[in-house]
Write a structure and sequence with these properties.
This protein is an alpha+beta fold. The chain is built from eight helices and seven strands; from the N terminus they run H-H-E-E-E-E-E-H-H-H-H-H-E-E-H. It is elongated.
């Protein structure tokens, strides 16, 4: 949810809706869901409940029957982390630039995570992870948001570009 809220602020509702699933789009001020051909459901000011789910991957579902609220259930962002899929490693050039451990921390933030979650995942000391997060935050590569008692860190657009390698390697720049 932290990821989606960040998108609302950065890019607006249209980007959030379009990013829920390939079968969901925003068109002419309406939300289109490719679940059943030809069905149209008017919200009539009643709103739409959005529910992320780890159980619906890779599809999307809609519930429109009264008396319940109209609901769109979509795959939750970050289900790979829940399923134990290891994050992609950082590009070698990034490790050479900012250090291997710091690059691993940046790469692991495909989904928002707390300091202790990252420490467990990467098998690093909590203090070391905290130090790396502080440096990455100061460099503008991360943002943070409070979620209950936790502070969750996530990559900024610049952090995403660096973690992905932005299509360049050291040999490309020579």
């Amino acid at each position: 949810m932290v990821h989606r809220v960040g998108l609302i602020g950065e890019q607006g509702w249209e980007a959030v809706i379009a990013g829920l699933h390939d079968g969901v789009s925003w068109r002419d001020g309406a939300i289109e869901v490719r679940v059943a051909a030809g069905d149209t459901v008017a919200l009539a000011g009643e709103g739409l409940l959005l529910i992320p789910s780890v159980f619906i991957v890779p599809t999307v579902a809609a519930h429109t029957a009264p008396p319940w609220p109209k609901t769109l259930i979509y795959p939750a962002h970050g289900t790979a982390a829940l399923l134990g899929t290891p994050p992609a490693g950082p590009p070698q050039a990034l490790g050479a630039l900012i250090g291997r451990s710091r690059a691993r921390v940046l790469a692991a933030l495909d989904t928002p995570a707390s300091t202790s979650q990252l420490a467990r995942q990467l098998r690093l000391a909590t203090g070391a992870v905290g130090d790396h997060l502080a440096v990455l935050l100061d460099a503008g590569l991360l943002s943070r948001a409070r979620s209950g008692r936790s502070v969750l860190y996530q990559r900024t657009a610049l952090g995403d570009a660096l973690a992905s390698g932005a299509g360049a390697t050291l040999s490309d720049t020579r």
